[in-house]
Write a structure and sequence with these properties.
By secondary structure, the chain is an alpha/beta fold. It has 10 helices and 11 strands. Helix 3 runs parallel beside helix 5 and helix 7 packs across helix 8. The longest helix is centred in the N-terminal third of the chain and has 21 residues. It binds ligand C2E and magnesium ion (2 copies). One magnesium ion (MG) binds next to loops.
């Protein structure tokens, strides 16, 4: 049966595909940046670059509206290279402006991560922009976490450049704690769902505490995503999570706004041992 709504959907899908092919050369993408904050000090220790698309008719589009399309139509590598280069270039601009040092985190889609040319591209972009490998972190989701030979080589090749690799959205996909044993990575990013759950469900909190302990024992950093309340920040600090990211500190903002944020201290968690017990209190600084 003919259904006008479905035709409209298909037309819109086709239009998005066509528009996406032109969007890079028409300069319609923009990166927003979200601070990563060290809970103990309130210092911004990193930012994550998050892509946005200024669509000529549909306005500002979030990545969930077009990243999967870019994957499907074979544009994701080109888009990913643009993100890497733009983020590194921006980071160097901030450095030259005298902002405190922090790492730049960039999301890499699974298809892009498996591209043998990725390491060469990263080396070229670092050389062209002047950003240091040690201050770059690539975020990959759990779907690339397979213990097959090829993927492990890719992790090793990239880390040999000096950059760091984080597993994004940890705890939601197929990965298991056991797979961490094989993976040459630097950081685990705990998914927002875990963070949301931890105050409602004691089991979530226990599992999260175990994940943080295992990650630390293996020498990995841990970042919790999607932290929206001070109670969550305090609870995360309590289970040993040192760095967090979320609306509590800042939403992703434009490059211009980020430089203002970088100069201030964020909220921090203060541990007071003076009375023979550990009291967690919250300081607002800056
Ligand atoms: P992600 O890498 O896990 O990024 C975190 C997402 O959570 C971002 O959504 C961010 O805006 C959002 N977020 C941060 N703090 C909070 C919070 O406190 N509460 C809530 N509810 N959300 C929060 P965004 O920017 O829409 O990006 C969604 C996803 O799209 C990203 O998830 C990432 O997987 C993908 N993505 C974004 N930029 C790129 C990119 O340049 N390349 C690729 N391949 N993927 C990207
Ligand atoms: Mg990410
Ligand atoms: Mg994530």
């Amino acid at each position: 049966f003919y259904q006008p709504a479905l035709t409209a959907l298909a037309e819109n899908r086709l239009r998005i595909e066509q528009d996406l092919r032109l969007a890079i050369e028409r300069n319609q993408f923009e990166l927003h940046y979200q601070p990563q904050v060290e809970l103990k000090t309130g210092f911004m220790v990193g930012v994550e670059a998050l892509i946005r698309w200024h669509h000529p008719e549909q306005g500002l589009l979030a990545p969930d509206k077009f990243i999967h399309v870019a994957e499907r139509i074979g544009l994701i590598k080109q888009l990913g290279d643009w993100v890497l280069e733009t983020a590194c270039r921006q980071a160097v601009v901030w450095q030259k402006m005298g902002l405190p040092r922090f790492q730049m985190a960039v999301n890499i889609s699974p298809t892009h991560f498996q591209d043998p040319a990725l390491a060469t591209t990263v080396v070229r972009i670092l050389a062209e922009t002047g950003w240091k490998a040690t201050d770059l972190e690539l975020e990959v989701t759990e779907s690339v976490v397979q213990t097959t030979g090829d993927n492990i080589d890719m992790f090793n090749d990239l880390r040999a450049i000096g950059l760091k690799i984080a597993i994004d959205d940890f705890g939601t996909g197929y990965s298991s704690l056991a797979s961490l044993k094989y993976l040459p990575i630097d950081c685990l990013k705990i998914d927002r769902l875990f963070v949301t759950d931890m105050l409602n469900d004691p089991d979530s909190s226990i599992i999260l505490g175990a994940i943080v302990n295992v990650a630390h024992s293996l020498g990995h950093e841990v970042i919790a995503e999607g932290v929206e309340t001070m109670d969550q920040a305090v609870a995360l600090y309590g289970i040993g999570c040192e760095t967090v990211q979320g609306y509590l500190f800042s939403r992703p903002v434009t490059a211009e706004k980020l430089s203002g944020l970088a100069q201030q201290n964020f909220k921090s968690v203060n541990v007071d041992n003076s009375k023979g017990f550990t009291a967690l209190s919250v300081l607002k600084s800056g």
